[in-house]
């Protein structure tokens, strides 16, 4: 059996569950709760298929281990923020308030459930490319695996700094100047965790490309669409943050949105923090 067919069947079941659960609970964050789990399952399906085929499975096992580490870290971070306790993403609540009920239900079905679940399959497809091309694990595989691991560490650091900030903010009574995090890796990027998240999947794509023997193949769609999703989500999130915190305008001027870069105007950021 082609492992891709099995992955599609599993994804179809996940879509049905997320949609039905969202209707019953009136909570549209079910895709968020499986986001860090589904790709782990999909990549292991390809890895196990390679093992059972008695093909050279080293590359796929490495890919599966990397994605498992990604999923474990993301699941832990989501859980400690209360993601599995029935808390809905605040952005969905905002959109629900801006749409008519039937419009939001269409958005829920086609974007939140179907599109995002399809994206989780697409970002896993470099593993399918590796299954189709069971070539020996080589130097470039090791390089991109190391990059994936480095980006994973970067995201871990960023999320921990953000967690620590919100813990301090809670201790301060819910407000800590300037209202958002601007230190640590957040002095170099307004959303370093988003950058590192995307970068991991580009490194994952590169491992599949090494297996295929060509740097461009159709599985690039997953990483590309993930980047598009993150850019759109980041812009929406920033619009909400800017409306809540006037000082955010200065932070935007001084600090890169995604790619970590040296702050452009230290004076602008200092004024934003002081205001």
How would you characterize this protein structure?
- This protein is mainly alpha-helical and 275 residues long.
- 73% of the residues lie in helices and 0% in strands.
- It contains twelve helices and no strands.
- The chain is globular and about 60 Å long.
- 35% of the residues are buried.
Low-confidence stretches: 266-275
Shape: globular
Average pLDDT metric:
92
Q: For the report, how would you describe the main beta sheet? A: none
Percent of residues in β-strands: under 5%
What's the Cα radius of gyration? Answer: 20 Å
How do the helices and strands follow one another from N- to C-terminus? HHHHHHHHHHHH
Helix/strand/pairing class, anyone? mainly alpha
Helix content range: over 70%
């Amino acid at each position: 059996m082609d492992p891709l067919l099995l992955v599609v069947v599993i994804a179809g079941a996940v879509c049905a569950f997320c949609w039905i659960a969202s209707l019953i609970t009136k909570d549209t964050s079910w895709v968020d709760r499986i986001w860090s789990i589904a790709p782990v399952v999909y990549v292991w399906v390809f890895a196990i298929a390679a093992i059972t085929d008695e093909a050279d499975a080293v590359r796929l096992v490495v890919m599966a281990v990397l994605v498992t580490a990604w999923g474990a870290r993301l699941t832990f971070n989501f859980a400690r923020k209360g993601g599995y306790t029935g808390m809905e993403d605040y952005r969905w609540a905002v959109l629900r308030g801006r749409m008519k009920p039937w419009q939001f239900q269409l958005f829920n079905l086609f974007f939140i459930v179907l599109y995002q679940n399809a994206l989780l399959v697409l970002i896993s497809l470099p593993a399918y490319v590796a299954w189709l091309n069971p070539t020996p694990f080589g130097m470039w595989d090791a390089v991109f695996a190391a990059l994936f691991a480095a980006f994973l560490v970067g995201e871990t650091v960023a999320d921990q700094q953000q967690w620590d900030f919100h813990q301090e903010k809670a201790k301060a009574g819910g407000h800590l100047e300037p209202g958002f995090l601007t230190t640590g890796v957040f002095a170099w990027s307004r959303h370093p965790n988003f950058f590192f998240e995307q970068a991991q999947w580009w490194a994952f794509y590169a491992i599949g490309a090494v297996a295929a023997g060509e740097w461009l193949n159709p599985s690039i769609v997953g990483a590309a669409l993930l980047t598009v999703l993150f850019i759109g989500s980041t812009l929406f999130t920033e619009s909400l943050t800017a409306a809540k915190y006037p000082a955010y305008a200065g932070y935007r001027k001084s600090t890169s949105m995604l790619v970590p870069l040296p702050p452009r105007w230290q004076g602008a950021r200092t004024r934003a923090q002081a205001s």
